[in-house]
Design brief:
Oligomer: single chain
Helix content: 10-25%
Radius of gyration: 16 Å
Number of domains: 2
Order of helices and strands: EEHHEEEEEHH
Largest sheet: 3 strands, antiparallel
Structural class: alpha+beta
Shape: globular
Number of helices: 4
Strand content: 25-35%
Length: about 120
C-alpha cells in the first residue's frame, strides 16, 4: 500500500506532499513525541493524552488509532495554553499535589513503547 505524508510548515504557507517510503526505500511511520507517548500509555478504549512537559503535547487515541492534536497554541486568557502549562517538564509533573480523577502520570519511556506499537499490525 502506498502511503503519503502531508507536511505543512508552521506558517501554513508551504504545503508539500512527500513520499518518504519511496525516498528512503523503506517503510516509514511519522509520529510526533506526544503521539508516541500516547500510544505507549494507551490501555484500550478512548484516551486523551496531554503531555505536560517543556510544552504541551496532545493526542487522542480511540480503539488503537492515534490522532496527534495541536492544542498548545490555542488562545487561552492572555496567551496560549502552552504558556500556562508548558513549564512542568523535566520531571516537575510529580510536584502536582493531586491529579484529577481519571488521570495518571506518564513517563518518557512510554514513547519507546509507542514507537514499537506504531509498527505492529493488527
Amino acid at each position: 500500500m502506498k502511503r503519503r505524508i502531508l507536511v505543512v510548515d508552521v506558517g501554513g504557507s508551504n504545503v508539500k506532499i512527500l513520499n518518504f517510503a519511496r525516498a528512503f526505500r523503506k517503510p516509514v511511520h511519522l509520529l510526533n513525541d506526544a503521539a508516541m507517548q500516547a500510544l505507549g500509555s494507551y490501555h484500550g478504549g478512548k484516551m486523551l493524552f496531554l503531555g505536560l512537559g517543556t510544552g504541551l503535547g496532545a493526542a487522542l487515541v480511540v480503539n488503537g488509532i492515534v490522532v496527534p492534536l495541536e492544542l498548545a497554541h490555542l488562545p487561552f486568557r492572555k496567551g496560549e495554553y502552552e504558556d500556562y502549562v508548558g513549564l512542568l517538564g523535566g520531571g516537575n509533573a510529580k510536584l502536582l499535589r493531586k491529579l484529577p480523577r481519571g488521570c495518571r502520570l506518564g513517563s518518557n519511556t512510554n514513547a519507546l513503547v509507542g514507537g514499537m506499537r506504531a509498527w505492529q499490525t493488527r
